[in-house]
Amino acid sequence: MAKEDARIPSEIGCLDTENLRVTLISTVGAHCDVWQTAGYHFERSKNRTFDLVIKRHILSCTPMETRIYHKDYLQLKRDLREIIPDAIFVRTRIDGEKNMLVFARAFTPWFNLANPALEEDAIPLMAKLTKARGQLAIFIDTANRLRVEEQKVIDLYGLDNLVLDKHMEVRYLDSFEVFFYQDLPHLIEADCADLQEKIDVSLKRLSYLEYMLARANREAAENGLDLPA
């Protein structure tokens, strides 16, 4: 999916898209495509550069929808802390229409934690990573609490949403539309088969994460390795 040395094919009010070199990362997100810059800097700090992810909403997005996306992100940020990258939500014009961008700090996915097909590799790997197991426990506890108390299911359907980065730390890389609402398919009359599938897959992957973490903690204990605090 990655397309290097490209340009975002839009006129965006707050970006010089003509001269901004980016790599296309994904076109399969929830109503967005995802681009990444290399060595981006702001004018006031030319000596400070960092990689930046730009998520462009490709459907119309009202101010109310932007506020909801931002509120959901902030709720998850309070609980997940460094697990979810810092992000800024911006209302701007995209191809002449008011819409939304999300700017987030870029982390390179190294290992997909929520893929059950990788179980044989994930368990011994996580057994060696005390900090990552602690981070994963925080993520699982947060996901279960939100599901029970608020009927919100954290999106684990997306590709590479929950990963280890190259520094062996857990990162949740989604920024907006981070929740599926568990009761929604039962409250509206429209066909919600697609939404229900995403909810079901996310819950199955959450159950797998609980199982995988328990196995990794047990293997760590058997080998005299530290358990998360």
Task: Name the features.
229 residues, alpha+beta, six-stranded antiparallel sheet, three-stranded antiparallel sheet, 11 strands, globular
Describe the structure.
The protein has 229 residues and is α+β, with helices and mostly antiparallel strands. It is 36% helix and 26% strand. It has two domains: 3-105; 109-222, no CATH class. The strands form three sheets. It has a six-stranded antiparallel beta sheet with strand order 1-2-3-4-6-5, covered by helices on one side. A hairpin with a 5-residue loop joins strand 2 and strand 3 (32-40). The protein is globular. 30% of the residues are buried. The mean pLDDT is 87.
Strand-helix topology:
Layout: E1 3-6, E2 22-26, E3 32-40, E4 50-57, H1 63-80, E5 87-94, E6 97-105, E7 109-112, H2 119-127, H3 130-150, E8 152-154, E9 162-165, E10 170-172, E11 179-181, H4 184-187, H5 193-222
Antiparallel strand pairs: 1-2, 2-3, 3-4, 4-6, 5-6, 7-9, 8-11, 9-10
With helices defined by DSSP (H or I, 4 residues minimum), what is the helix count?
A: 5
Q: Structural class of the secondary structure composition?
A: alpha+beta
Tell me the span between the first and last alpha carbons. 38 Å
The value of Rg in angstroms is 19 Å
Strand order of the largest sheet: 1-2-3-4-6-5
Mean pLDDT: 87
H/E element order? EEEEHEEEHHEEEEHH
DSSP strand (E) fraction? 25-35%
Main β-sheet, in a few words?
6 strands, antiparallel
In total, the number of domains comes to 2
* Poorly predicted parts: none
Number of strands: 11
Shape: globular
Percentage of helical residues? 25-40%
